[in-house]
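ok so i was messing around last nite and threw this chain in just to see what happens. nothing serious, just curious
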Amino acid sequence: MPIDPYILALLGTVALAALLPASGTAADVAGGATTGAVALLFFLYGARLSTREALDGLKSWRLHLTVLACTFLVFPLLGLAARGLVPFALTPELYSGLLFLCLVPSTIQSSIAFTSMARGNVPAAICAGSFSSIAGIVVTPLLAALLLGGGANGFSADSLLRIVAQLLLPFVAGQLLRRWVGGFLTRHRTLLGRVDRGSILLVVYTAFSQGMVAGVWNQVTPGRLGALFAVEVVLLAAMLTISWYGARRLGFDRADRVAIQFAGSKKSLAAGLPMASVLFGAQASLAVLPLMLFHMLQLVVCAMIAKRRSRDPLPEPSLDEPAAVRTRAVAGQG
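result:
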């Protein structure tokens, strides 16, 4: 399968931070730029989200609740279960990063792309990913404070205030100003997409530079990285299985199950990296390592699943089904 150029850019950024880490004045400048970039990211998230579309999406509330339960309930429970792997397979720092990964909201873009490829319910995937991202701005820091607080990470009221200042307030500002800036964002979607990705690369560079300067990478061995990868393979396989068969037990049709599987089993690098930089400080490099590894893994595995599901025969809708259901099935066949 072709390699995502953005994955290569992420790996290149990590290599640059390892060879030329920012320190001293350069670190202060990079830290200030990262703070501004994170605020800009969440302002753009807020300005792009159509409130009207979000409200319309509430009609599929059972599906959205299922995705939220996978993202913020089942994932954290599996993360807590992995605590038994410390210190035999994972170091405490890598485990903290793994648990933080389990608290991050679902991704939007790739969930939509894979749902479309697999001929699933694309509108539901759009809304589910959007709702997860909105909820994650509040739920992820609260869960992090609850499950990771009191330890080496130093979560406190100050951490939550930083989240509000750098993430929540810019998001709300984007929503309030959408009326005036929404058209501009739509016309310059490609350019702003590059701004998004560039901002995330800056966050990665700053986080890994701090890790290099602080010497945290001396704590990671190839054996530990291999164990982390194996744990994440099991975690992804468990969530793909739970989301697919759990949705079937709940009575969802195939199109909805596809959307639930892809939105409920994936984690957002774009949302998780800025949050980690705010919450973990100098330890952010180890905190984001599990998330970056999981991001690459989920892209490869879900692409293969979506390609396979695209060849599934679709059920023929009966004449007594609602028109919307028949229309969706016909569109999926096309």
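not much to say yet. The chain has one domain: 26-310.
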